[in-house]
Amino acid sequence: MAISDPDRAPDGPTDPTPTEPRGDGGEPVDGASAQADPDAEDVTESAGAIDVSPARPWWRRYAEEHVAHLVVIVVLGAYPLLHSALVASPVGAEATMLLPDIETMTAVLYFGLFAMSFDFVSGYTGYLSFGHAVFYGTGAYFVIVAANGKLPLVPHTTPFLVLLVLGGLLATVLALVIGVVSFRLSGVYFAMITLGVSQVAYVLVRDWGFLASNPRDGPFVVGPEGAAAPVFSVGIPFVDPLNLDIGVLTGDSVVLGPLSLGSTEVSFYMVGLVVLVCYLALQRLVHSPFGRVLVAIRENEERARAIGYDTFRYKLAAFAVSGFFAAVAGGLFAGFRRSASPDNSFFFLVTGDALLASIIGGFGTLAGPLYGRLLDETVREFLSKEGAGGGLLPYLRDTLPESVLATDIAGLTVQGAIETFLNGHASLYIGLVFVAFVLFVPGGLLGYVRARVGGPIAKQVARRIRGEN
Amino acid sequence: MSATLLAVLSAVPALLGELVTLPLVSYIDTLGQFLRPSTLVGVFVRGLSKSAIYVMIASGLTLVFGLMGVLNFAHGSLTMIGAYLGGLIMVLAVTGASGTVQRFAVFFVAVLVVFGALSALGGVVEVGLIRPLYDRPPIYQILLTFGVTLVLDELVRIVTLFYGIQPISEWQAALGTKPEPLTATIELGSTTVSGLALFEILFGVLTVAAVWAFLTRTRYGLVVRAGSEDSEMTEALGIDVRRVFTTVFALGTGIAGIAGALLMWDPVWGASVPLAAETLLPAFVVVIVGGLGTFRGTVVAALIVGMVDAVTTWWFVNAVEFTGLPEMFIFLILVVTLIVRPQGLFGVAEVGGH
How close B352 gets to chain A, by Cα (Å)? Predict the structure, then answer.
C-alpha cells in the first residue's frame, strides 16, 4: 500500500515510466533507500541482466534468483515427513500441539492462493476489493454443481482441472462485468460497490434451490442422480495417466518405495502443485511490465494516466486475472472439502479473512498472503475447540497436574480460565495481531523482512551467492 | 449447434426453478391485494419503523465519516454491544411484575447508560488507535476498524458464552422485558400495527431531531460542520480539531449503542453476536445511498431503504418464495445508486473522494 507515498514523491518525476529499470539497474543502492520503499522490489527480471558477467549462463543465474523460492518449496514439500517424524519423536506431544496438521496446511495452500489473488488486485493496484469472495465462491460452487451433473454442456465426468479452468473463466467473465461498473469508482466507493455486488450474489446463492437441496447449507458432491459421485483428480487432463485424487474422504494414497503417503498427504501435494503453478503465473505477471503498471496505478494513478496508460483497462485486466485465480482457489477448496456453503465461500467475511492474511503477511507482496494465512491457520488450530490436530487445549488438559487445573484465581479455576479464553477464540488473538500489524508493521511480515534485508529476499539471496554487496 | 442450444434451453426451467414459482396471473392478483388501502397503510407504517431502525444504525456512521473521513467498520459491533448492554440492564432491573411506567423508565436509564459507556469506548478507540493513523492513507483506518470489529465480536462472544446468554441467536430474556403497550397491536384504520413499530418510529424521530438540533442549533454543532467542511481552516481559527474528532467519534459510537438498545426488543434483530454484521451492512447501504457524510441524505436514504424493505418483505410473505428478497433488494439499491450516482443522493462529488 502507499506506505512509501511520501518517500516516493521526490524521485517520482524523474522516473516516470515504471517499466523501465532505474538508473542503478533496479537494485536499491543501499539499505536506506530500500527502507524507504519496501515495494521497490525487483523492477524487472531483465534488469538484473545488466550487471551479470557473461561467464554466468542464464540457467545458473535463474537458479540463483530462485534459491529462496526453492527453499520455501522444499520446506513445504518436506513438511508432511517432518511433521510425522516430529510427532513420533520424544517431543511428540509438543509437536502435535504446536504444528498445524496436514489438513490445515492444505487449507493454508488453497486459501493462501485466494488471499494472493485478493492481494494481486488490492495490494498491487490499491483498490480494496471488498467483495472478492464472490469469485472464490463462484469457483467452489461451479466445481460442485458441475460434479453433481446439474450444468448443461458440462458433464459430471469432466476432469477436475478442466472444471477449475472453466470455473476460473466464469469468474473472469463475472469479474469483467463487475469491474466495468466498479472501476469508475475509487477508494471507499469501490470497496462498497464490490461489497454490494458480492452480497447480492451471497443472498442469491443462499436462497437458490437449484444449487443445492438445502441452499443455506450449501451443496456437496453427491454426483448426478443414479451415478456415483465423481472423484477429483489432479493431473494433466487427457495426457497424464497418473491422476491423483484429492479430497479428505476420497483421496488416493500412494506408496513410493519406503514412503507411504496417506490421502491427506497426497491431497496436500496435489493442491500444493496447483497453487505453485498459479503462484508462478501470478509472479510472472507481477514482474512483467503489466505488473509494474499496476504498481504505478497504486502509487499515483493520475501520473500513470498522464504518461499514456489506459489505467481503466489495466485495472480491469488485473481484476479479471485476480478473479480467475480466486475461482481456482475456490475450486481447490471445494475439491478438497467436497462441499461448500454460502457462509464459507460467498460471505463478505471470507474476503475479510483474505484481507487479514494479506495485511499480516504483507500487503502488496505476492507471497506474503500465504505466510499470513499460515500464521492465521496455525493460531486457529493452536486454539481450536476440538483440538483434533493437537492444539493448546488438549495439551494443557493432559500435561497440567490436576491440582494446578483446580487452582482458583479470582473466582475462576485455571481450567475454567483456559476453557473461557482459549477454547476456540482464536479470532480475538488474530484480531489483536491484525490491529498491531496495522498500527506498527504496515508492511506486514514480508514487507518488514524486505525492509530489513534491503529488498526482496530472493534478490538478496541471489546477490549474496554472487558475492556482490 | 441446435443440440447445444436445446441443451441450454432445456436447463432453463431447472435453473429458474425456485425463483419463479407462481404464474403471472396470480402475481397480478397479489398486486391487487397489495394496492388495497389497508395493506398500503400497514406496509407504510412497517416501512417507517424499519426506516427508524436504519436511521438509528446509520446516523452515527455518517457523522463520523462526514467529519473525519473514517469509514468505521466497527460500527456494527458497537451496535451489538449496545444491544447486549441495554438488554442486560433491562433484564437485571425488570422483574416479571414491573409495571409499564417502570419499564419505560428503566429503558430510558438503560439508553443513557449505554450511550455513556459506548461514547467512552469510542473515545478510547479514537485516541488510542485511530489518531495515530490520520497521516496514513485512509485505507488504514478501514483496516484498523475492521480489526477492532474482530476483537470486539470475539470478546463479546467469550463473555456471553461464559455467562450463558448466547446459546440462542436472539436473547429471549431481553425480548421479554418489553413494556405492556409495546407487545400489543394497535388498530389503525382498517389495519393493525404493533406497538413496538410505533415506538421505534417515535424513537427514531426523536434521535433524528436531537442530532439535527445538535448540528444546526448548537455552537459545537457549528464547529463540527465547519470541521467537516475544511478542517485546516477550522484549526487555523483556533479550534482544537483533534478534540472535536474525538468528541464526534464518541458521539457516533454512542448513537450506535442507542440503536442497539432499541434493537434488543425487535424480534427480527434481537441481541446476538451476528447482529454486528447484520447491522453493519444495511448501515453502509444507507450512508452510501444518502451520500457519505451528509446527515440529510442519511435520513432520506433510511426512508427509502426502510420502505423498500417493508414492501419486499410483504411480497415475500404473500407471493414470492424467496427468503432473501428484502435483503437482496437492499444491496441492489446500493449497487444501482453507486452506478447511477456514485456520490449518493445528497453527496457532493468530492466528499470522501479517497
Answer: 8
